[in-house]
């Protein structure tokens, strides 16, 4: 399974690269991360946005990703929104905004687990 992570803020590219470095510190995610480009959404024009793609194999990688993302979000000094989309037939997507979700880890994990169960 793959999860694609976008930081949807004015300085998204400036935040995505540090997020990638943050996630690389997790043993279960090391070597599973790739910075890619996403096609613009139908309502977007111009440049494409950077996306962090995470390959999640079996085991606890999804739980590690959910925990690590929630900690990273809590450490952001300004409002930060990330959008996580899973690939596959039953693709799912969730947006989580720092300072507005009480339990970001549970929300992120529910999306990742739902895709895995398919």
Gist of the model:
The chain is an alpha+beta fold.
Key traits:
118 residues; alpha+beta; 5-stranded antiparallel beta sheet; globular
Helices, strands, pairings?
Blueprint lengths: L1 E6 L4 H13 L8 E5 L12 E6 L5 H14 L6 E6 L6 E5 L6 H13 L2
Antiparallel strand pairs: 1-3, 1-4, 2-3, 4-5
Helix pairs in contact: 2-3
Domain module count: 1
Global Rg: 13 Å
Helix and strand composition category: alpha+beta
Alpha plus pi helix count: 3
Share of helix, binned: 25-40%
| Global shape | globular
How would you explain this protein's 3D organization?
This protein is an alpha+beta fold. It has helices at 12-24, 61-74, 104-116; strands at 2-7, 33-37, 50-55, 81-86, 93-97. The chain has a five-stranded antiparallel beta sheet, with helices on one face. The model has no long low-confidence stretch (mean pLDDT 78).
């Amino acid at each position: 399974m793959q999860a694609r992570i976008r930081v949807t803020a004015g300085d998204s590219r400036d935040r995505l690269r540090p997020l990638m470095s943050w996630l690389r510190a997790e043993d279960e995610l090391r070597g599973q991360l790739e910075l890619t480009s996403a096609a613009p959404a139908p309502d977007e024009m111009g440049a494409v946005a950077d996306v962090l793609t995470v390959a999640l194999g079996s085991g606890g990688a999804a739980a590690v990703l959910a925990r690590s993302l929630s900690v990273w979000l809590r450490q952001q000094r300004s409002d930060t929104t990330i959008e996580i989309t899973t690939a596959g037939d039953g693709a799912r997507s969730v947006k989580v905004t720092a300072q507005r979700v009480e339990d970001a880890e549970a929300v992120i994990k529910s999306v990742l687990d739902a895709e895995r169960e398919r």
